[in-house]
Amino acid sequence: MAATSDYLERITRAQVHMQELGIDLMLVTPSADLRYLIGYNAIPLERITALVISPHNEPFLVVPRLEVSTATASPFGNFGWAVIGWAENDNPYDIIRDVSGFTTGRVAVDNHMWAERVLKIQKYFPLAQIELATPIIGAIRITKTPTELDFLREAAAAIDRVHAQVPDLLKVGRTEEEVGRDISELILAEGHVRVDFVIVASGPNGASPHHELSNRVIIAGDPVVVDIGGTMPSGYCSDCTRTYSMGDPGSEYLERYKILQRAQVLSTKAIHHGAISYTIDAAGRNELSKNDLAQYFIHRTGHGIGLETHEEPYIGENNETIIENNMVFSIEPGFYIEGVHGARIEDIVICTPDGPESINKQSRDLVIIEI
Ligand code: ZN
Ligand code: ZN
């Protein structure tokens, strides 16, 4: 959890952005944005909870009456701002209007807000112009503070410890599901509070980047793509891919893997303050195209990570985001050859003034499992 001063600074920065952009009101419902701004990890339920921020007034939190004590126990309870409980027969939108004084102007909503709520805002604030809060909150979340960087390093170390144990789980004759179940247990045992995803893609299944665990039995010679991640108690996420091989995968695969490994290094090395997202993508993609592998690299190079596994900045072919120090994102090129096999190497990397810092430390070599 961040310190109270961190949260207050985030709110102040949000209010400054609102002033700059001319936004009159911002409503943030349970989401990573809410957790980021006030530390309240509320569960999205049918009764609305909303953080209400105006550019010049004190923010307040509107919550169902039965959740007032939970909300007050969150870091928001230490800020000295109002937590307003609404009763079953209250209209929470009336409360938002009465307390904020907002009736007309521009209202920004978090980008994960339920459509049902957006439509109600439209109904109860007919003169308001609704837009996304992404330019306000996203602009703050995209670069990480030293505390957040440490949380992400902790998450990376935890998932690295899981990858270190994957070779013990991979055995010819086991199914992807069996291996996946064991990996899920390890993700929790190594310090995560939640398993976010477990991809174990063996043999031809490796050609599907987001393969779901199946009952396919792992056989000798299979490459196995293992992409795993979870959420730590801090709320920050891990995400790391390594590729394993059940014995010798054959010379063609080994050659392709080497090229992929070079591409992953080249994209990582292209990271620096001021680099444009697409140049980082191109550094690896060009290496793959020299070897006719780019046609099999069917996704972008990476995504930002923080309180969500996928967030800004994205690293892709047409993305013009300018990378700054303390941005954190994945570098995860791969190749996916339908019906044959696939591979991916993924690290989370911090852009630092001293260059790129890969926070996943496990070897990026193909891990050959003795069979
Ligand atoms: Zn990823
Ligand atoms: Zn991943």
Give the helices and strands, then pairings.
Layout: H1 4-21, E1 25-28, H2 32-38, E2 50-53, E3 60-64, H3 68-73, E4 83-86, H4 92-100, E5 105-109, H5 115-124, E6 128-132, H6 134-141, H7 146-169, H8 176-189, E7 194-202, E8 223-231, E9 240-246, H9 251-269, H10 277-290, E10 302-304, E11 311-315, E12 328-331, E13 334-337, E14 341-344, E15 347-352, E16 355-358, E17 367-369
Parallel strand pairs: 1-5, 3-4, 5-6, 9-17
Antiparallel strand pairs: 1-2, 2-3, 7-8, 8-9, 10-11, 12-15, 13-14, 15-16
Helix pairs in contact: 1-6, 7-8, 9-10
Care to describe what's here?
- Strand 15 (347-352) and strand 16 (355-358) form a beta hairpin.
- The protein is α/β, with parallel strands linked by helices and 371 residues long.
- It has 10 helices and 17 strands.
- The radius of gyration is 23 Å and the shape is elongated.
- It has a 6-stranded mixed β-sheet. Strands 7-8-9-17 form a 4-stranded mixed β-sheet, with helices on one face. The chain has a 3-stranded antiparallel β-sheet with strand order 12-15-16.
- 35% of the residues lie in helices and 23% in strands.
- The protein has 2 domains: 4-141, Creatine Amidinohydrolase, Chain A, domain 1, CATH 3.40.350.10; 146-369, Creatine Amidinohydrolase, CATH 3.90.230.10.
- It has helices at residues 4-21, 32-38, 68-73, 92-100, 115-124, 134-141, 146-169, 176-189, 251-269, 277-290; strands at residues 25-28, 50-53, 60-64, 83-86, 105-109, 128-132, 194-202, 223-231, 240-246, 302-304, 311-315, 328-331, 334-337, 341-344, 347-352, 355-358, 367-369.
- The structure holds zinc ion (ZN) (2 copies).
